[in-house]
Predict the structure.
Amino acid sequence: MKSMVKTAVVGAIAALFVASAAMAGGQQPARRGAGMGPGRPGGPGGFGFAPGIVRELTDEQRNQVRAILQEERGDRDGRRGGMELRRELEAELLADVPNDLKIEDLKSKILAAQAEALTKHIEVQKRIAQVLTPEQREKARARLAEAPARPRARRR
Protein backbone atom coordinates (compact mmCIF):
# COMPACT_ATOMS: atom_id res chain seq x y z
CA MET A 1 0.00 0.00 0.00
CA LYS A 2 2.81 2.41 0.95
CA SER A 3 4.56 1.61 -2.32
CA MET A 4 1.41 2.49 -4.30
CA VAL A 5 1.14 5.85 -2.54
CA LYS A 6 4.78 6.62 -3.26
CA THR A 7 4.33 5.64 -6.90
CA ALA A 8 1.24 7.87 -7.15
CA VAL A 9 3.07 10.83 -5.58
CA VAL A 10 6.09 10.43 -7.85
CA GLY A 11 3.78 10.04 -10.86
CA ALA A 12 1.88 13.21 -9.93
CA ILE A 13 5.09 15.18 -9.49
CA ALA A 14 6.45 13.84 -12.78
CA ALA A 15 3.22 14.91 -14.47
CA LEU A 16 3.58 18.37 -12.91
CA PHE A 17 7.15 18.54 -14.16
CA VAL A 18 6.18 17.48 -17.69
CA ALA A 19 3.36 20.05 -17.71
CA SER A 20 5.68 22.85 -16.57
CA ALA A 21 8.27 21.86 -19.17
CA ALA A 22 5.56 21.83 -21.85
CA MET A 23 4.39 25.28 -20.81
CA ALA A 24 7.94 26.60 -20.87
CA GLY A 25 8.48 24.99 -24.28
CA GLY A 26 5.39 26.76 -25.61
CA GLN A 27 7.02 30.16 -25.28
CA GLN A 28 7.77 31.92 -28.51
CA PRO A 29 11.35 31.89 -29.76
CA ALA A 30 13.36 35.09 -29.94
CA ARG A 31 13.00 37.09 -33.13
CA ARG A 32 15.49 39.38 -34.77
CA GLY A 33 14.98 43.08 -34.25
CA ALA A 34 12.68 43.80 -31.32
CA GLY A 35 13.21 40.31 -29.92
CA MET A 36 11.29 38.26 -27.42
CA GLY A 37 14.00 37.36 -24.93
CA PRO A 38 14.44 38.38 -21.31
CA GLY A 39 14.46 42.13 -20.91
CA ARG A 40 13.24 42.66 -24.44
CA PRO A 41 9.81 43.67 -25.67
CA GLY A 42 7.49 40.73 -25.20
CA GLY A 43 9.87 38.73 -23.03
CA PRO A 44 10.17 38.39 -19.28
CA GLY A 45 11.03 41.79 -17.87
CA GLY A 46 10.25 43.31 -21.25
CA PHE A 47 7.49 45.53 -22.50
CA GLY A 48 5.14 42.67 -23.32
CA PHE A 49 1.89 44.11 -21.99
CA ALA A 50 1.65 46.72 -24.73
CA PRO A 51 2.11 45.09 -28.13
CA GLY A 52 3.23 47.60 -30.75
CA ILE A 53 3.44 50.55 -28.35
CA VAL A 54 7.26 50.48 -28.39
CA ARG A 55 7.27 51.97 -31.90
CA GLU A 56 5.26 54.93 -30.64
CA LEU A 57 7.60 55.94 -27.83
CA THR A 58 9.49 59.20 -28.02
CA ASP A 59 13.29 59.06 -27.83
CA GLU A 60 13.14 60.23 -24.21
CA GLN A 61 10.59 57.53 -23.32
CA ARG A 62 12.69 54.90 -25.08
CA ASN A 63 15.73 55.96 -23.05
CA GLN A 64 13.70 55.79 -19.82
CA VAL A 65 12.39 52.31 -20.65
CA ARG A 66 15.89 51.19 -21.64
CA ALA A 67 17.25 52.43 -18.29
CA ILE A 68 14.51 50.56 -16.37
CA LEU A 69 15.22 47.36 -18.30
CA GLN A 70 19.01 47.72 -17.85
CA GLU A 71 18.49 48.05 -14.11
CA GLU A 72 16.22 45.00 -14.09
CA ARG A 73 18.77 42.99 -16.07
CA GLY A 74 21.38 43.72 -13.41
CA ASP A 75 18.98 42.56 -10.68
CA ARG A 76 18.14 39.39 -12.59
CA ASP A 77 21.70 38.02 -12.36
CA GLY A 78 21.06 36.94 -8.76
CA ARG A 79 17.90 35.03 -9.72
CA ARG A 80 19.42 32.48 -12.08
CA GLY A 81 19.06 29.84 -9.36
CA GLY A 82 15.59 28.84 -10.63
CA MET A 83 17.13 26.98 -13.57
CA GLU A 84 19.49 25.13 -11.25
CA LEU A 85 16.58 24.20 -8.99
CA ARG A 86 14.67 22.77 -11.95
CA ARG A 87 17.71 20.73 -12.98
CA GLU A 88 18.01 19.39 -9.44
CA LEU A 89 14.32 18.47 -9.51
CA GLU A 90 14.72 16.71 -12.86
CA ALA A 91 17.70 14.76 -11.51
CA GLU A 92 15.80 13.77 -8.39
CA LEU A 93 12.77 12.67 -10.38
CA LEU A 94 15.03 10.46 -12.50
CA ALA A 95 16.82 8.95 -9.50
CA ASP A 96 16.52 5.20 -8.98
CA VAL A 97 14.77 5.94 -5.69
CA PRO A 98 13.43 9.54 -5.71
CA ASN A 99 13.56 11.27 -2.34
CA ASP A 100 10.04 12.64 -1.77
CA LEU A 101 11.21 15.10 0.89
CA LYS A 102 13.85 16.55 -1.42
CA ILE A 103 11.30 16.78 -4.24
CA GLU A 104 8.89 18.69 -2.00
CA ASP A 105 11.70 21.00 -0.85
CA LEU A 106 12.77 21.71 -4.44
CA LYS A 107 9.15 22.29 -5.45
CA SER A 108 8.75 24.86 -2.68
CA LYS A 109 11.99 26.60 -3.66
CA ILE A 110 10.94 26.72 -7.33
CA LEU A 111 7.54 28.17 -6.44
CA ALA A 112 9.20 30.81 -4.25
CA ALA A 113 11.59 31.73 -7.08
CA GLN A 114 8.69 31.99 -9.54
CA ALA A 115 6.73 34.20 -7.13
CA GLU A 116 9.76 36.45 -6.68
CA ALA A 117 10.27 36.71 -10.45
CA LEU A 118 6.60 37.56 -11.00
CA THR A 119 6.74 40.24 -8.30
CA LYS A 120 9.82 41.78 -9.93
CA HIS A 121 8.19 41.58 -13.38
CA ILE A 122 5.12 43.41 -12.09
CA GLU A 123 7.28 46.11 -10.48
CA VAL A 124 9.16 46.67 -13.74
CA GLN A 125 5.96 46.75 -15.83
CA LYS A 126 4.41 49.30 -13.46
CA ARG A 127 7.49 51.52 -13.75
CA ILE A 128 7.43 51.26 -17.55
CA ALA A 129 3.70 52.03 -17.66
CA GLN A 130 4.35 55.27 -15.80
CA VAL A 131 6.70 56.38 -18.59
CA LEU A 132 3.77 56.30 -21.03
CA THR A 133 1.43 59.20 -21.55
CA PRO A 134 -2.24 58.68 -20.60
CA GLU A 135 -3.04 58.38 -24.32
CA GLN A 136 -0.36 55.73 -24.84
CA ARG A 137 -1.64 53.76 -21.84
CA GLU A 138 -5.19 53.94 -23.24
CA LYS A 139 -3.97 52.74 -26.63
CA ALA A 140 -2.01 49.92 -24.96
CA ARG A 141 -5.13 48.85 -23.01
CA ALA A 142 -7.15 48.84 -26.24
CA ARG A 143 -4.52 46.74 -28.03
CA LEU A 144 -4.33 44.37 -25.09
CA ALA A 145 -8.11 43.90 -25.18
CA GLU A 146 -7.94 43.14 -28.91
CA ALA A 147 -5.00 40.73 -28.62
CA PRO A 148 -5.75 37.01 -28.77
CA ALA A 149 -6.18 35.37 -25.38
CA ARG A 150 -3.54 32.74 -26.07
CA PRO A 151 -0.15 32.93 -27.78
CA ARG A 152 0.18 32.15 -31.45
CA ALA A 153 1.33 28.69 -32.46
CA ARG A 154 5.06 28.21 -32.43
CA ARG A 155 6.66 28.27 -35.87
CA ARG A 156 9.61 26.09 -36.74
Remarks:
- Residues 100-131 form the longest helix (32 residues).
- The mean pLDDT is 74.
- Residues 38-146 form a domain with the Four Helix Bundle (Hemerythrin (Met), subunit A) fold (CATH 1.20.120.1490).
- Residues 64 and 112 are 30 Å apart (CA to CA).
